[in-house]
Write a structure and sequence with these properties.
Distance between the termini: 79 Å
Number of strands: 10
Strand content: 5-15%
Radius of gyration: 33 Å
CATH class of the largest domain: Alpha Beta
CATH superfamily of the largest domain: Periplasmic binding protein-like II
Structural class: alpha/beta
CATH topology of the largest domain: D-Maltodextrin-Binding Protein, domain 2
Number of domains: 3
Order of helices and strands: HHHEHHEHEHEEEHEHEHEEHHHHHHH
Helix content: 40-55%
Shape: globular
Length: 378
């Protein structure tokens, strides 16, 4: 007896290899599995595929998260407009975009910052290149790896002093001996005909914020100091008169406002992460330069600035031409600082040059990867 098409008997005979079922099943051209079993099989296959898909999605997400999870502690040593690219990168998600977890930490400049680098608590910091050269000459494995750009310092004086010559016999405030502003004063004042230690006294105050030094000057604690341009604008907005004596840049004397510093072990062992940090910082600088309103939002949020004139001053001085898209260390400025320091304060620096304390290889690699070119073409 043959079997009807699609009957259970037909499938059973085919499974058993029965004589009657063989031809019937050939006519049927159907698989030798009962219909209800075939339905269960299809459901099981679909369920298995779904489970595998879910597992793959979670595995991929975990893999991507692991890839971008490397953390770096990045310190900044002053809450000024100089740090705008750091805040832009944080607010716009650029650190995450470039696959690095950046923890921004405020720390005091100078010895505390250098100590944090050496101990490994901080991976990248912001210190004057001169301070790094001093520490490096004394055996610390610290190195300058980039710069925030040129300083916008001006030499300012008490309202009663109107010219450089009137500073003779007066006191000019610095930060601390061997600091960036201190080295700048010793290089710059001779261009004005003022010899430190002879014509003027240099007073280390330990005050890194120039607005606080201006306040001390107006209180009569000293007669002049170096001040950032935005702090000068702030004084003017408050109706407080101070006299701007000179701009060091007009005399060919330049220095960085702050420098990126790290240690040689970090540069060697955390190279990919530090490069990712630089890419995010560079892109943030580019974004801030192209988008004035973005820059203004950052200044308002982090510096609590609302005055349009002050916002414009900060934008021009910290995201304009003084803030280079390619933040290479300023070799010439550091060489000049080393020359001054080796003669007076740090004999260990004799015979040294900027090349002994600078590692620009990270930025060179980024440039060789055409990162800057791609940004400029956007």
């Amino acid at each position: 007896m043959g079997c009807r098409k699609n009957s259970f008997r037909c499938f059973s005979l085919c499974e058993k290899g029965g004589k009657g079922g063989s031809r019937a099943c050939r006519d049927n051209k159907s698989p030798s599995i009962p219909l209800f079993q075939r339905g269960r099989s299809r459901t099981a296959v679909k369920l298995t595929a779904f489970i595998l898909l879910v597992l793959l999605i979670f595995a991929s997400a975990g893999s991507a998260q692991d890839k971008k999870a490397e953390a770096l502690n990045v310190a900044y040593t002053s809450a000024t407009a100089t740090r705008a690219p750091l805040w832009i990168a944080k607010e716009t998600g650029l650190f995450e975009k470039h696959g690095v977890d950046i923890r921004l930490i405020y720390i005091r400049a100078g010895s505390p910052s250098i100590s944090a680098l050496v101990s490994g608590d901080v991976h990248v910091s912001s210190d004057p290149a001169a301070a790094v050269a001093i520490a490096g000459a004394r055996g610390a494995p610290v190195v300058v790896i980039g710069t925030y750009g040129l300083a916008s310092y001006r030499l300012v004086a008490h309202p009663s002093i109107a010219s450089a010559q009137q500073l003779k016999g007066k006191t000019i405030a610095s930060v601390r001996a061997g600091s960036g502003p201190d080295a700048l004063l010793h290089r710059f004042l001779p261009r004005l005909g003022l010899v430190p230690g002879k014509d003027v006294a240099i007073l280390p105050t330990g005050i890194s914020e120039s607005n606080r030094r201006i306040t001390g000057m107006l209180q009569g604690n000293f007669d002049a100091t170096l001040a950032s341009w935005d702090n000068i604008v702030q004084m003017d907005l408050l109706g407080q008169k101070i006299n701007v004596i000179a701009d060091p840049a007009d005399f060919g004397v330049r220095t960085s406002v702050s420098d990126f510093t790290s240690t040689r072990p970090v540069v060697r062992e955390r190279r990919a992460a530090v490069k990712s940090f630089f890419r995010a910082f560079i892109e943030a600088s580019w974004m801030g330069r192209k988008d004035r309103e973005l820059a203004f939002r950052i200044f308002r949020k982090y510096l609590k600035v609302e005055d349009a004139r002050l916002l414009d001053s900060m934008y021009k001085n910290y995201l304009g031409v003084r803030n280079p898209l390619k933040p290479y260390p300023l070799d010439d400025a550091l060489d000049a600082d080393i020359e001054y320091l080796s003669k007076t304060l740090v004999p260990e620096l004799k015979g040294k040059s900027a090349a002994d304390f600078i590692d620009a290889s990270l930025l060179r690699e980024i440039e060789n990867e055409n990162f800057f070119t791609r940004l400029e073409q956007r």
